[in-house]
């Protein structure tokens, strides 16, 4: 199957709604949909979506994803901030810019330390929360023009950081020209995103949705940054969000290249991560996984078991709409985000209820859509298992916990 220029389709997940577009109750009108297809480049190490959803449709003032809903992620980003404060923001009046600063989960720590910073995020609602936490925010899409304006107003940045945002941005060349304009001589660009290697190994196909445009690897990041005079100088594998990599990029020759880069590239070559056969094998496992999940839910329903979902994640939009899971199989999804509660999930129209309502009499089985937060959620909801309830997880395969 062919895709955009030089790309071929490896996985077709059908027409999908916007993953973070929660609907008012009773909604039965049309929803914006787009074809969700993963493509690989036939010559270069690039895996991405083939269709660009206009950025304003996804990231706007009502963007419902609030980073700080997870305590674990708050700890994760505090540690990130502490590391920058200790290792990078040490000179005379250092400056850090974060792309996709959301509710200030990382920069609030930098603000508390009194260091010069700027968060850039087009989502006004979460931006207001960040401001209340003392974070300086510019409501904008970061791109080359935005970067040049920041450079003119604030001067050069020692660090440009982005978490779970770089992979959302189709226009990476504009971003990298902007980073080039903004960074000091030996400044660094650091970004962390879901890792293609983990997605393929765990068949975590729900990482595929409108906002996740690029599926990065060490090899692909080297390929993407090189034309802009940058090189990949460090990589770190992270356990958060189901497996991520943190990439550190510097101007070519400005920083020593760590051993971890060659090691991860070698791992990717050994598993032929970008190869057609590898990705077709992944696609086959995804189809099996989705079929297994629907069969399991249907069987449980037939036995009269009560089922619920937990975590109205963006990821769950792909699972429900690709597998065909609606309120008949999962009548409710519990979630702690006020902006999602009382609304319907995109496409599948499963009602979202506050997680405070997840209590006895509990459902028999709860489909954990937020499997990437399993530890945190299972710890919080320990009474559920104690009362005989069971978690149902579908990554890396369908199983009961
Ligand atoms: N960094 C946070 C938020 C990730 S969600 C975390 O890891 O939890 C992605 C965020 O990126 C959203 O808040 C979205 O509004 C923002 N975003 C998307 N495109 C952007 C762009 N071009 N520039 C800046 N922010 C962007
Ligand atoms: P997440 O998996 O972080 O991201 P995405 O939407 O990009 O797939 O989303 C986690 C969702 O789960 C979010 O809507 C908040 C919710 N949640 C809870 O309801 N309770 C919790 O304890 C945690 C950690 C998350």
Summarize the structure.
This protein has helices spanning 55-58, 71-87, 107-112, 124-132, 144-154, 172-182, 196-202, 218-225, 259-270, 276-302, 314-323, 374-380, 382-386; strands at 7-17, 33-41, 47-49, 95-99, 116-120, 137-138, 157-163, 183-194, 230-238, 244-251, 307-310, 333-335, 352-354, 365-368, 390-393, 399-400. With 401 residues, it is α/β, with parallel strands linked by helices.
Small ligands present: S-adenosyl-L-homocysteine, thymidine-5'-diphosphate
Helix proportion: 25-40%
Radius of gyration: 21 Å
The domain tally reads 2
Structural class designation: alpha/beta
Order of helices and strands: EEEHHEHEHEHEHEHHEEHHEHEEEHHEE
Shape designation: globular
Q: How many angstroms separate the termini?
A: 38 Å
Mean pLDDT: 97
What is the strand tally? 16
**Assigned CATH class of the largest domain:** Alpha Beta
Uncertain stretches of 5 or more adjacent residues: none
CATH architecture of the largest domain: 3-Layer(aba) Sandwich
- CATH topology name of the largest domain: Rossmann fold
Largest sheet, described in full? 7 strands, mixed
SS summary, helix count: 13
CATH superfamily of the largest domain: Vaccinia Virus protein VP39
Tell me the β content: 15-25%
Strand line-up across the major sheet: 6-5-4-7-8-10-9
């Amino acid at each position: 199957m062919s895709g955009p220029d030089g790309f071929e389709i490896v996985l077709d997940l059908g027409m999908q709604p916007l993953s973070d577009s929660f609907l008012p109750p009773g909604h039965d009108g049309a929803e914006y949909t787009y074809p969700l297809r993963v493509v690989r480049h036939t010559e270069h190490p690039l895996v991405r979506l083939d269709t660009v959803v206009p950025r304003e449709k996804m990231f706007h003032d009502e963007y419902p994803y609030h980073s700080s809903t997870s305590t674990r992620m708050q700890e994760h980003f505090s540690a990130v901030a502490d590391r920058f404060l200790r290792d990078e923001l040490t000179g005379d009046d250092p400056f850090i810019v974060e792309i996709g600063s959301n509710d200030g989960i990382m920069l609030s720590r930098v603000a508390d330390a009194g260091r010069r910073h700027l968060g850039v995020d087009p989502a006004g609602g979460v931006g207001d929360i960040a401001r209340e936490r003392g974070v300086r925010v510019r409501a904008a899409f970061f791109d080359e023009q935005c970067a040049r304006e920041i450079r003119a107003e604030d001067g050069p940045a020692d660090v440009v950081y982005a978490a779970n945002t770089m992979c959302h941005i189709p226009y990476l060349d504009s971003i990298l020209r902007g980073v080039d304009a903004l960074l000091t001589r030996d400044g660094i660009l650091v970004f962390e995103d879901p890792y293609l290697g983990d997605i393929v190994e765990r068949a975590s196909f729900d990482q595929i949705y409108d906002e996740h445009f690029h599926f990065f690897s060490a090899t692909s990041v080297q390929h993407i940054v090189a034309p802009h005079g940058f090189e990949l100088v460090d990589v770190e594998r992270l356990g958060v969000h189901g497996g991520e990599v943190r990439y550190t990029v510097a101007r070519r020759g400005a920083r020593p290249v760590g051993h971890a880069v060659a090691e991860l590239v070698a791992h990717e070559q050994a598993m032929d991560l970008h190869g057609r056969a590898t990705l077709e094998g992944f696609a086959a496992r995804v189809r099996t996984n989705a079929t297994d999940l629907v069969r399991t839910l249907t069987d449980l329903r037939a036995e009269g078991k009560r089922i619920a979902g937990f975590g109205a994640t963006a990821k769950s939009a792909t699972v429900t709409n690709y597998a065909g899971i609606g309120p008949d199989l999962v009548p409710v999804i519990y979630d702690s985000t006020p902006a999602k509660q009382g609304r319907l999930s995109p496409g599948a129209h499963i009602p979202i209820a506050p997680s405070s309502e997840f209590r006895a009499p509990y459902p028999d089985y709860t489909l954990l859509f937020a499997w990437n937060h399993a530890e945190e959620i299972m710890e919080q909801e320990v009474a559920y298992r104690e009362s005989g309830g069971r978690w149902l997880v579908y990554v890396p395969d369908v199983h009961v916990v």
